[in-house]
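REQUEST FORM: STRUCTURE PREDICTION
Request ID: SP-0412
Submitted by: Lab K.M.
Chain count: 1
Length (residues): 545
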Amino acid sequence: MQLKNTKVVTGEQARKYILEGVNAIYEPVKRTLGPKGTNALLYGTYGQSPRITNDGVTIAECIEPKNEFVNLVATAFKEACKKTNEKAGDATTTTSVIAGKAVNDILSGNNTSVFSDVSTDMMKKREEILKLIPVIVEKIKEKAIKIDSLEDLEKIAIISVQDEAIGKLIAGIVYQVGIDGFVDVQEGFKGKIEHEVIEGMRFPAKVPAKIFVNNEARYEMILEDTPVLVTNYTMDNVGEVGMMLKNVLGTTLRKITILAPSFSDQVLVEFVKAKAGNLIISPVKVPSLRSVQFEDACAYFDATFINKDEGRTLISVTQQDLGFVDRLIVKDVEAREDAIAIGGRGSKSDTVKARIEELKKSIEETKVPTHKLIIERRIASLASSVAVIRVGAPTDAETRYLKLKVDDAVYACKGALEEGCVKGAGICLNDIADEIGDSVITSALKAPYEYIKSTRETGEEAGDDVIDNAKAVRCAVEHALSLTAHLITVDILVPEARDASPAEGYSDIAQAILITHKRDANGNTESDTEGQYDRMLEEHLIGNR
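STATUS: Completed
RESULT:
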């Protein structure tokens, strides 16, 4: 096996790359912060036209520095924004601003030429930051005010989406479905925003492999208009699963979704290969479902439960055993197991209603309080409210821009219902910074407020109606400061070794020729007997690979 030439930088050079990598994300993203934040024009993906957005994490994801050391740091920095997006769905720009300011303050403020000489100092700063995180989080919770009215929720939505009419619409929808409800934001095709609240089902589920995620921006696997097989069999026998699929699909079906406790790697590989034959086989992993919950799901999908404990075999499955669902969304995040089914065939008939009535009778017959609670949760899961917002605009670019804004506003409202609201425009964290006093992160906590204030007109101040959802602020602080605490202690950078492309080789040769054949003022080639060009060439190769 041929070993790759791994590159390593340490000390002062590592610190320079850390600052460069952080600022590659921090500097452009911070410009989108606040009501007067600017937009970015990004390249299109999957053949789409360029996009205009001010969504922090979307912008960050598009930035890929060429230098592999800088890119390594930038990738690590993005993780903080992605974590905030994953858990709160909002405040990704705030995360970048806090972390970017903190890292710059700490590393740029260190004038020592040899980074290793201050490693002890950096470890002390790390401990100080980690101790301050729970203190700040607790203060955010103390300052949070519970959302008791639709009016308060409207303030959150309007600030997030930056449009009063749309903000009120979103707030009304989220308020209607409540904390346990679900809001699905889709692209519309009528040039306007449409919405409806329908009955859906929520249940714990996972995406068994990253390759099945088809909405990477939200870490989701989205399945539409699909037959559904529900079973508690473990999908680990390639031959048996293959025979089952051949019997079920026949010559008419080209897609199927399978809910099962687990799938072996070999079976998943066969599912991926099936795409070559224009078959779409979508696995949904449901390891925590019990038999009664499988039966609940079958009622919603109007499917037959293929129960291994009752003697049914996979090979005996037919198309008549399959249910159907209009849309199934499975989240691929570590924080939770979550799937939302919309438009199950059973929900359009009396199947779900009959199941709910059956469960209600069980509550009356159950004497144990904890058992009653479990059944009540099953009823809530089976009949939870689901809202659909279809975002449309005159152009595709405007539609995609508005969809991201609506998405963020929905998450902001949900977070506010969960953990309340705090003073917005960075004021909450600015106040907390004053309360904590002088610390290594004081200016970083003040950074969102200071930046937003710098974009206002003279004398303009944020009013009492400017509020943020406390969950987003909390997540921004936790992820930004956690990243900072660990990144400032880095003294060694080792990016993944990669093979240079031919184009890079030609570029290196050209640079070498330019460096080795320097010309004097008269245009004559100078000789370099002291080997200076060797050092220049080495610096170029390290810095541009």
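NOTES: The mean pLDDT is 84.
Reviewed by: T.R.
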